[in-house]
Amino acid sequence: MSNYFKVFLSLTIWVSLFISAYIFSRFTVDDAFISWRYGYNLVHSGYFNYNPTNLDLTQAYTNPIYALMSIFPAILNIDVVVFFKVISLLMCMFFVVYLYRKHGVKYGAIIFMAIPATMLHISSGLETFLFTILLIVLYDCLRDKNIKLSIVVVSLLFLVRPESFILSILVPIYYMTEKEGSANPFVKIKSIFRSKNIKNYYPLVLVIILFLILSLHNLYFGSWLPNTFYIKSVNNEVVTSKAIDFFIWCIPALFFTLFLIKNENTSLFYVFFFLFLAMSINYSMSTLQMDYASRFFFHIYSPLYFILLIESKHSKVVGNKERSNALFDVNCFSLLCLSVFMVFFYIQCKPAELRSLSEYYPRLKTSHAQIGYSIQDSGAKSMVFSDAGVAAFNSEINALDNIGLGSTMVAKYGVNDRVLNAYNPSIVVFKSRPATGIRLKENYQTEIYKWVEENELIQVCQVYFNSSYSMLVYAKPNLNITKLQDVCKKSNYNLNGSDEVFKNYLLVPPWHFWNNDRLI
């Protein structure tokens, strides 16, 4: 490869990263504010809860580590969006340096981060990319047989995603089985009882650590698992279309990538094979309100991509360094494999979806964020709001999430008069469509509307997110509704032609949206 071509390729990679960051780093997902609300409430009201009181104690987050980290911006009075944007940037820098120093990977991580789907997950405010980073660090720990660090990393993963709970079984089994030898899983299991090194049994402490984490949640919230599990998974059967989709894409990918491991360390192959297999089954039974940029797929494909990068540097199957490409440090076979992953992410995220996501947070700031602030100013003490995110965060009052993610009551009983009377909302915000009105058939909104009529709440105004999604606001007559009406008027901008809104939002630098500022 000529030096001129290397320079051209390097510039192309960096320019692609810059363009992707410029367009998509403005993205922050509404769901991120669910976890962030816990730290804010703990600092400002003394309750580690979705609500700023002890009403309806709920473990609404799936990532305790972000809920705990959100304490720091609340204490330091730093904008929570800025704080987590900086955290995301630092994580990416750490990961790039880590891969380079540990494995000599130069551009593989940067190329992957330049993909729009990856940049969206990095910028979202959720734990998606952190989950990938920790899985790769764990992969290296297992590969290097670093028992103590493996325990630390798995413990952190417990606090990042509940999918990692299965590692409390897989990692101890890994250390207690023979690493090489027969690939037969039954032979592997038998070898557990032949291990004489006492250190190989240390990872069993992971079972105790997981039990303690779950016990603390059960003691405080009254449930062992996150509330999202009871809403999204427990009553769902396997969705056939999802299962087919996952297994068509994921099972071949597992074998396609992990055969590199199997030839040198069969136990390591089985750890990640069964981890990703369990995740695929779980995801086939779950639903996401915001499945932007294929979040579920990303949890599987992203670690597999980096495993392939690592193994292409070290595996005897792929070849030696003399045959490697000088720029990427992998040979032509590995480059072909990496290209498959790139193509997958591009076809998973359609151009229309990417365009919508690029203007998502600017629209959210104009609508949900500002309605939250105006509710805070109205004098309301409690509300019903079906998007459990920035609106509830900014309102600083009790918020009944009628979808159920932010409410144990809804998860247990649904929405009925008992639940509504317990909250006694002064404001009710309905999911609506600008053209047809309230979506009564969704998320108990029929029951809520009956309660609103019985308690004589009045219609105030309509807040617009886009031409197909709006929020109809009802309030008790004694509230100050001036700012509510101002927000509704300002949100009319989101009804403008999509090309105009897209162009105006895109021309503004992304860091202009790295905040949760009041606009009214």
TrEMBL record:
Keyword Membrane carried by entry: yes
Keywords in alphabetical order: Membrane, Transmembrane, Transmembrane helix
Transmembrane domains' residue ranges: 7-25, 65-98, 110-139, 151-175, 201-223, 243-261, 268-286, 292-310, 330-347
Species name: Vibrio inusitatus NBRC 102082
Organism domain of life: Bacteria
Protein name: Glycosyltransferase RgtA/B/C/D-like domain-containing protein
